[in-house]
Amino acid sequence: MLKGRFAAKLYGASPFHASQSQIATMIPRSLYFALILSAAHGIAQAQVIKCKDANGRTTYQSTPCAPEQGAREEKKAAPVQKAASAAVPRKDPVSPEQADLAAVNERMRVRMCEIYRKNVSVLKDSEKMIVPDGKGALQVADAKRRAAEIAQAEQRVAENCK
After folding, report:
1. Residue 128, CA atoms < 13 Å, CB-side half-sphere
2. Where is the composition biased (Low complexity) (predicted)?
3. In angstroms, rounded to a whole number, what is the distance separating the alpha carbons of residues 120 and 154?
4. Is 49 helix (H, G, I), strand (E, B) or coil?
5. In terms of C-beta distances under 8 Å and separation of at least 24 residues, what long-range contacts does 107-112 make, across chains too?
């Protein structure tokens, strides 16, 4: 039987790698760390209030100013990162990839619109509608459920087929 580093190299193991039990304990630690970071991010987004006391000193705090005589309160929002979707659209020329993507999206929208319209016509033309009962079996839907499905399908057409 081989021993030491030679055996580790031969069988693909290494004395420098973590064992399965060590990896199992490392995963929850990383999740805890991510949770702490996300909580810290929420704290960083807190509101900042600028207060001036009776002596004229300026202080910044997260709680409202003390109701002292002569105290003034000026609220400022903490700097917020702008979302990528809220960015101002650029008027630069569109790249060929973006043009292709826009064309594919338009074709897909038209195709989905056709599917939604066909779904509405099938629902209106059919006398019975078969739906799952939640237990793995199928059942015939009552008139109320059928009307709700037709209304939902018509709403999809109204939203997506403009």
Report:
1. 5
2. 78-88
3. 6
4. strand
5. 109/160, 112/160
CA distance 76 to 80: 11
Question: For residue 72, is it within any domain?
Answer: no
CA angle 89, 94, 97 (to 5 degrees): 115
> What six digits make up the tokens of 59?
């202080």
Flag whether 53 is in a domain: no
116 in any annotated domain: yes
How far apart, in Å, are the Cα atoms of 162 and each of 6, 25, 110, 149? 70, 53, 10, 21
Domain count, the chain: 1
- Candidates 143, 156, 145; CA nearest to 117 is 156
- Domain containing residue 143: 96-160
Contact 130, 139 (CB under 8 A): yes
* Nearest CA among 109, 103, 114, 119 for reference residue 153: 119
pLDDT digits (tens, 9 = 90+) for 107-124: 999 999 999 999 999 999
Report pLDDT digits (tens) over 58-67: 877 767 777 6
Taking every pair of Cα atoms in the chain, the longest distance, rounded to a whole number of angstroms, is: 86
Asked whether residue 13 is domain-assigned, the answer is: no
Question: Do the Cβ atoms of 45 and 81 come closer than 8 Å?
Answer: no
